[in-house]
Structures are given as C-alpha cells and as structure tokens.
Amino acid sequence: MRTRITLLVALALTLLLAGCTGGGSDADDGRITLRFQSLAWQDESVRANKELVREWNATHPDVRVEYVQGSWDSVHDQLLTSFEGGEAPDVIHDASDDLADFAYGGYLADLTDLLPERLKSDIPRRSWETTTFGDGVYGVPFLQEPRVLIANTELLKKAGVRIPTPEHPWSWPEFRQVTEQLSGDGRYGVAWPLKEPVSATLNLSLSAGGQLFHRGTDGKVTVRFEEADQVVPRTIHDQANTDHSASSSTLGSGGSDTLPGFFAGKYAMVPLGFSYRQQIVQQAPEGFDWQVLPAPAGAGGLTQGVSPQTLSIAEDSPHKRAAAEFIDFLLRPANMVRLALGDWMLPTGTQALKDPALHTDEHGWATGTALAAHLRPAPAQSVRGYPEWKDKVATPALQEYYSGAIGLDELRTRLEEDGNLVLARYQR
After folding, report:
1. Cα–Cα distance between 161 and 33 in angstroms, integer?
2. Which of 50, 101, 108, 218 is the most exposed place for a label (fewest CB within 10 A)?
3. Tens digit of each residue's pLDDT (9 = 90 or more) over 51-110
C-alpha cells in the first residue's frame, strides 16, 4: 500500500509540473514543440492556417508546431491568465491595439533582433508603428482591413448618385447628402452598426484630420476633442437624429446584424470592415447586386486608422529563435497572400500586396487594395489605459450621443474630463 501511495504521489507531482510548464516543450529526442495560438475563425482562414502549419511540420522535423485554436471574444483575458500562470503559447495571434499593456508588462518578447531583414523591409514602417512600444517591437503586423461602404448597386443607380472611387471619394458632407437622397419609402440611406462605436469613430476620424489623443513632451497623453475629431461623430449623429437617413435601430447592432436588412433593401449602404465581404458572398440572395465603395474623405484624405492582426512571441518562451523562424515562414509573400485571402483582408507586406488575386474587381478586392497605402496606426494604438477609457468612458458617451440622449458639448466633456482622469492613472 505504501509503495502504491508513493507512486500515486509521484504521478500527481509529475502531472502538476507538466501543467505548470508553459510555452514550447522538448521531446526526448531533442525535437522542439512550439504552440501557435491562432484566432482564425472563418472556415477559409482556419483551413489556410492549418495547412501552413502542416507544411512547416513536413519540412522542419526538428521543430514541430502545435496548432491551438483561440477566440477573439476572450483573447485578452485568456492571454493575461496564461501569461500570469506561465502557460502562454509560444506564438501568439492577436491585434495590435491589444498589445500595449502586454508589451509594457513584460509579457511579450522584443522582436527587434529576432526577425530577419527580409520581413522587416517588406512590411512598411507605418505598419511597424502599430506594434512598436517604447524602444521595442512586440508583434509582426500581417493582416489589416480598411472600413468601406458596402452598397446596394441597384439603389444607387435608381437614385442617380455619383459613385465614389478611391481616386474621387465622397467628402463627409457629400456622403451625408447622398444618404438623404437614398432615403424614403421606409428605406434608410445608411445603417451604422455601432455596437462597438469607439474604434470605428476614431479610425474614420483620421480622414477628417482628427487625432483626439495628444502626447506631450513629457510623454503623457491627454484627450482633446477638437473640431476635426467632431466631423465623423457629428455626421453620424445628424444622419440618425436630424436627417433620419440612418437607421437608429442599428446603432446598437453588430455588423452582421445589419445584413438581413441590407439584403432586403431596407438600407442602401452599410459601413463595414473589408472582411465582411465574405459573409455577404455567403449570405446574399441570388442575384443581389452589391459593390464596395471607399469610406468618405476629409482634410486627411482617405486616411483611416487600423489595428492590424499580429503575431507575437511570449517572453517566457524558451524557443524564441525557432518561433521567429516559424513566423517568417508564415509570412513569406505567397503565404501572406493565402492568409489574406482566407480572412478576406489585406496583407501588410508590399510584395504580397502586388499579387494579382488582390487586384481583381470581383468582390471589391481592387478597391480595398487601393486603400492600403492610406492606412495608418489607430489613434489609440500606444495609449496605456485605452481599454478602460474605451469601456468606461468613450463607449457609453458615444452611444448616448449617437442615440440623441446627449449633445456634443456633453460628449466633449465626458471624453476629455472623464477620459483624462482614467488615462492619468496609467501615466504616473
């Protein structure tokens, strides 16, 4: 009995130690195992990621990659728990606007000296800025998507409105006029799905010259809701509350929630992320004619903010060099194109962006690719405390403003005064 108890205790300790071991592991034969947590969720994207993992494993017998499925819905909390518990995957799929606290918290490896020159030079500096915090680079930005207008072609033709192009986009005032022309008989010119209003508002506001977050010489950030920052929210508010050219019922909806009404002709246009095209292709009724239009332009032209999808390496990973080599493999130009097509997004790499598959008129690929050069880091990219500011201050304030419950002055007060109190706690 004593021998049996001893064996059971030993077994329990072995299992406990195994459960506390994070990152990659080494097999008895010396082979390295890397854990790659992917957030791919669309069938095409999951398939592309898994195929690339299989191709790596077939050609790299000494470094095996284990595919781990994650979820966008819970990634931040899940990663924080895994970091603190020593269970973080070696290679981490995330978005650049989620990296700041992880980078400053010491959870992510600085990739500056780990990545090959090929990859560094292929991705533009403006994209690298989204993953640069302080003096380090903590992620590789590889997929991005502009916000575009998905439009009902038949309704635009009937109204006789000018069709915008990346070379000649609508201005924000013209866009407001067009949505009025497209409205009537129970139809709205536009449906804004603003369940998560902050990123859409801030990113589109760059086109009007908005900045919102201002960093002083002391490095501290303050919020100033100036005239340029007000162009986009004022347009949305007036469409919904003054012109009634925007459906007020969709302001609390997600993008997918607006598609049934769009297909039924209730909304002539819906501003969506570029990747929503896949859902439209899959769900649109037979014969439904739609097209992709650029978002409106302002003082900043077609510029808009993005938070690219990223690949990072855990600071606790014992195999950072091997993990960097796997990332380099995933993001070779041809592979980056496969990932972009699978996610219906745009690659950040300049070589991948030249691929003919991304320049076809079908499903608006050419329009989206034409916008790639205008994408810039999202305004809140490097702001510490942004998640709390977004959740506790900006989201409720914008939701109330768009619904007509508060005015512009109250919105400014809450974004600036309440917002700066939140940010100050992170900048002491």
Report:
1. 57
2. 218
3. 999 999 999 999 999 999 999 988 999 999 999 999 999 999 999 989 988 998 999 999
**C-alpha–C-alpha distance, residues 246 and 187, integer Å:** 9
Ramachandran area for residue 86 (φ above 0: left; ψ -120 to 50: alpha; else beta): left
**Alpha-carbon span 407 to 75, nearest angstrom:** 35
Calpha distance 224→235 (Å, rounded): 19
Report the distance separating Cα 268 and Cα 262, nearest Å: 7
CB distance 258 to 250 below 8 Å: yes
Q: Are strands 32-38 and 63-69 parallel, antiparallel or unpaired?
A: parallel
Lookup: tokens for 425: 């706690």
Do strands 304-306 and 132-133 pair parallel, antiparallel, or not at all (unpaired)?
unpaired
Task: Measure CA 199 to chain center.
Answer: 9
Q: Which residues, in sequence order, are CB contacts of 61 under 8 Å at separation 6+? A: 31
d(C-alpha 276, C-alpha 146), whole Å = 11
d(CA 40, CA 46): 5
SS3 262: helix
Give the pairing type, strands 32-38 and 91-95.
Answer: parallel
Asked whether residue 405 carries a pLDDT value surpassing 60, the answer given is: yes
Q: How many Cα atoms are found within 13 Å in the side-chain-facing hemisphere of 283?
A: 14
pLDDT digits (tens, 9 = 90+) for 342-395: 999 999 999 999 999 999 999 999 999 999 999 999 988 778 888 899 999 999
Closest CA to 368 of 397, 343, 399: 343
| pLDDT of 119 above 60 | yes
How many beta carbons lie within 10 A of that of residue 137, not counting itself? Answer: 23
SS (H, E, C) 6-33: HHHHHHHHHHHHHHCCCCCEECCCCCEE
Provide the pLDDT confidence category of residue 30 given band limits of 50, 70 and 90. Answer: confident
